[in-house]
Each structure stands twice: as structure tokens, then as C-alpha cells.
């Protein structure tokens, strides 16, 4: 006959749910851990409330137990199962005093239990979803937003309806930067265009989450907007370069940004903001990264809406396809992305309205080797007199790469001016790039959101949040 030997730990923990009964609620602690920590069948115990909403402790009773002389004792109960071979006799604690339960646990549905020898501590677990809802409704005045990974374009759109309590923006070092520090360029551009309560010019991969949590808690910020780096999901980046970016460099760093979704989740977990809007390239929604991301949002009690949106179907001049993910704690309040529709513009109208007024500003780059090579291999992004929309503008536009956006008129190629780039991205006149160089400015435009379509999405988000906070 085999003998079971158990190594008893110093401490054990467990999570349990309070059960509903006709009189209110009860907590039944039925577990193998009770006898391991001295709570055997028929042992006398004392239940003591620690404080209002602070939980209770259960102690093994003895005549020398200080402070419990006047406490009513209970016992450890047992129940048997004739058909059960494993653990046929089960010990349990049955807590039913409504006064004690309500004082110790408040409205909590779950409790956390810590077992030590002769002592059991039971504390309420806050329902994070309910807490998010309650906290969001306590803010007065304009709704607060936490904006991350923005050089100002999406922040400007958000600022029309929200107060930007905090901006997290940091341009990571790129090899072509050499010894130049450009980490502040995006942040400078952003605060040149919008008012920001707290600027965090730190890397999202290493920023202190406790600090962010404290900032959001202090300001009671509700809305989290983030445009994660998209290069490792983009079809523009070669697969070989994507794989190479995962390799560890000599200094221990890696170049990939694919794990930024994890940091978005870290921020959300540390802040418990009830609303999230994430923007990335359209390929995102078909990846395992998104499957993981969405699963965790669902697990935390968010309802998730997702859609691939073609900016040209929301009135933009550019066929810029982006994935949007909106997550809300208020699952009973309706939300929908803007209705898409074809702009019905003819190619002649498109040329006359969107290209002809800017053509005199555009450089003739027909002679460029990279432009000719791009055209030869089919990577060049051309717009001509037959087009009804612009192709997607890229971050690399200013480098006149093989996948640059150019205007083709006859046999000539013309390179867009900054004014035309702004027009393509739908940027309002009030948005300024004066704080950065022309090269950085072009990068900001190329990697930013298409303003017109993004603003329509922000409008729908704002409507949902407003309804939710009034519910």
C-alpha cells in the first residue's frame, strides 16, 4: 500500500467566489489546504472582521488566543462522498453571517484567501471592470485621453473632443541617425500642435508602468489611444528584414517592434482605462499577435470592435488601409465604425482637384535612378491622370526610395511637394511641422494617420464614450 507524503508550504493562496443564497451571500472554503494548515475536522475557529471592506481572518481557537475571549467560536465542518475515491472526507469552513460578509467584503464577488498555519486571511477582490466603470463616471469636465506613439497628427484630432492628459512619445534611434539624437522630434512636433498635461518622452518598451498608472489615476483619464509601430507587419518591409530585426544585436538590443502590443496591454493593465483605440496596418487583424491581443482584452472584460478601413471610403484622397481596434468596458452601449462609401469622383475631377493645383511645386525626378528602378520592378507608387485616389504615402517618402509616391504625367515623374504630402494625408492648415526638419516632417506625415478618416473614427469613439459615461 502506497503512503502519500505531502510537503506542506509555509503559505498557500486561493481565489474563491461568494455564493448567492436566499438570505444574501455565503462563502464556503472547501479545500485540501485546510488540514495542511491545522484546520482539521471539528477544530474550533474564530471569525474576525479586520475592517470595513478590508476582509476577515479565521483563527484556530485556543484559550490563550489574545483578543478573542468574547468571540463566538465555530468549527471546521466535514462532509463525505461515498462514491469518491479521492478525498472522500472533505473539510470546509462555512461563513454565512450577513453582517460579517457585508462589512468584510462589501459588494465584492470574489475573495483572495491566504493560508498560514492556524491562520486564514480572506480579503475582497475588486471587480476591475466595475471599478473602471465607477471611476470613469467620477471625472468632471472634459473627458481625458492618454495618447501614445503620436507625433501630433492623431493627437490633434483627439484634442478636438478630449483633453490630452498625457502624451507618451519617443522616436527610437535608427541606424541612419548615426550619432544624432532624434528621440525628442516627435514629441516636439506634437506639443507644437496640441496642449498636453504630462509629456513622457520615454521608450514604451522600458517606461515605468507604475509611473503611468499614477499619472492616469491622478487625472482619472478614461481614453487610451495608441498607434503602434507598424513596420514589422507592413507588406512594404521585406520578410528577410523582418526576420533579421528579431536577431539580437551586439549590444544586446533588438530592432523589432512587433512586441509593442504587449506594452499596450501593460499600460492598460496598470491604468485600467475603460476605453482603448489602437491603429495599425491592415495586416494586423489576420495575425496571431491580434488574436492574443484580443483574447486578453476579452479576458479583462472589454468588448472589442475591429475593422480594416480604407481611408478613401471615408472621403480621403488616399487609399490608405488601416486596422482599427476599439475596446470598451461599457458593452451595453452601442458602437460602430463610420459607414464607408465610394466617393464617386471621376479621374478627371480627381486630377483637377488634387494634383493640378500642386503640380507646379513638384520636382521632376524622371532622371532618378531609384525612381526608374522602382518603376521597372513595379514597386513605385504612381498616381496619374487615370487615378481616382492616391496610393499610400510612406515614412520613407523623403528618401526617394523605390517605393516612393510619385506623379506620372506622360513619360515624366514628379515628386510631391510638402504641401501636396499634407494634402494627401488630409492634414488641416493648423497643423505645423515647424519644430522639425523637412526630413523628419516628411517621416511624421508618412507614418501618421490619414487625418480626415481618423477624425471620423474619433467622432464615433467620442459619441460612444459620452453615452457610456451618461448611462
UniProtKB/TrEMBL annotation:
Gene Ontology MF annotations: DNA (cytosine-5-)-methyltransferase activity
Taxonomic superkingdom: Bacteria
InterPro entries: C5_MeTfrase, SAM-dependent_MTases_sf
Gene3D superfamilies linked: Vaccinia Virus protein VP39 (3.40.50.150)
Any one GO biological process: DNA restriction-modification system
Chain ranges passing through the membrane: none
Keywords for the protein's UniProt record, in alphabetical order: Methyltransferase, Restriction system, Transferase
This protein's record includes keyword Cytoplasm: no
Reaction catalysis annotation: a 2'-deoxycytidine in DNA + S-adenosyl-L-methionine = a 5-methyl-2'-deoxycytidine in DNA + S-adenosyl-L-homocysteine + H(+)
Pfam families named among the record's database cross-references: DNA_methylase
The keyword Transferase belongs to this UniProt entry's keyword annotation: yes
Name this protein carries in UniProt: Type II cytosine-specific DNA methyltransferase
Record organism: uncultured Sulfurovum sp
Amino acid at each position: 500500500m502506497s503512503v502519500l507524503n505531502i510537503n506542506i508550504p509555509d503559505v498557500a493562496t486561493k481565489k474563491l467566489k461568494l455564493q448567492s443564497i436566499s438570505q444574501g451571500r455565503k462563502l464556503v472554503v472547501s479545500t485540501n489546504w485546510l488540514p495542511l494548515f491545522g484546520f482539521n475536522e471539528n477544530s474550533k475557529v474564530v471569525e474576525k472582521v479586520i475592517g470595513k471592506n478590508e476582509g476577515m481572518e479565521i483563527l484556530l481557537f485556543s484559550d490563550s488566543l489574545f483578543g478573542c475571549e468574547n468571540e463566538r467560536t465555530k468549527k471546521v465542518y466535514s462532509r463525505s462522498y461515498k462514491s469518491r475515491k479521492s478525498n472522500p472526507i472533505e473539510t470546509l469552513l462555512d461563513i454565512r453571517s450577513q453582517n460579517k460578509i457585508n462589512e468584510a467584503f462589501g459588494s465584492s464577488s470574489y475573495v483572495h484567501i491566504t493560508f498560514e498555519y492556524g491562520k486564514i486571511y480572506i480579503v475582497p477582490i475588486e471587480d476591475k471592470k466595475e471599478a473602471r466603470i465607477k471611476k470613469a463616471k467620477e471625472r468632471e469636465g472634459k473627458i481625458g485621453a492618454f495618447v501614445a506613439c503620436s507625433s501630433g497628427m492623431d493627437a490633434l484630432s483627439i484634442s478636438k473632443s478630449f483633453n490630452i492628459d498625457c502624451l507618451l512619445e519617443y522616436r527610437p534611434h535608427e541606424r541612419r541617425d548615426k550619432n544624432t539624437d532624434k528621440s525628442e522630434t516627435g514629441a516636439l512636433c506634437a506639443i507644437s500642435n496640441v496642449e498636453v498635461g504630462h509629456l513622457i518622452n520615454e521608450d514604451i518598451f522600458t517606461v515605468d508602468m507604475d509611473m503611468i498608472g499614477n499619472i492616469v489615476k491622478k487625472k482619472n483619464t478614461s481614453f487610451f489611444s495608441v498607434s503602434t509601430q507598424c513596420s514589422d507587419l507592413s507588406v512594404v518591409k521585406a520578410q528577410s528584414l523582418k526576420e533579421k530585426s528579431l536577431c539580437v544585436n551586439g549590444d544586446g538590443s533588438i530592432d523589432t517592434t512587433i512586441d509593442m502590443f504587449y506594452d499596450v496591454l501593460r499600460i492598460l493593465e496598470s491604468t485600467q482605462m475603460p476605453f482603448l483605440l489602437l491603429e495599425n496596418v491592415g495586416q494586423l487583424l489576420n495575425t496571431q499577435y491580434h488574436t492574443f491581443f484580443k483574447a486578453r482584452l476579452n479576458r479583462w472584460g472589454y468588448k472589442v470592435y475591429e475593422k480594416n478601413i480604407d481611408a478613401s471610403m471615408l472621403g480621403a484622397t488616399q487609399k490608405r488601409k488601416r486596422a482599427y481596434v476599439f475596446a470598451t468596458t461599457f458593452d451595453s452601449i452601442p458602437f460602430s465604425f463610420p459607414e464607408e462609401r465610394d466617393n464617386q469622383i471621376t479621374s478627371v475631377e480627381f486630377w483637377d482637384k488634387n494634383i493640378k493645383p500642386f503640380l507646379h511645386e513638384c520636382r521632376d525626378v524622371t532622371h532618378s535612378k531609384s525612381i526608374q528602378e522602382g518603376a521597372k520592378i513595379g514597386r513605385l507608387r504612381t498616381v496619374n491622370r487615370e487615378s481616382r485616389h492616391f496610393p499610400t504615402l510612406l515614412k520613407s517618402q523623403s528618401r526617394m526610395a523605390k517605393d516612393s509616391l510619385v506623379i506620372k504625367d506622360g513619360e515624366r515623374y514628379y515628386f510631391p511637394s510638402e504641401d501636396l504630402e499634407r494634402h494627401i494625408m488630409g492634414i488641416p492648415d493648423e497643423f505645423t511641422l515647424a519644430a522639425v526638419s523637412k526630413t523628419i516632417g516628411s517621416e511624421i506625415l508618412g507614418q501618421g494617420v490619414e487625418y480626415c478618416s481618423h477624425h471620423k473614427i474619433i467622432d464615433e469613439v467620442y459619441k460612444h464614450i459620452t453615452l457610456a459615461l451618461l448611462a
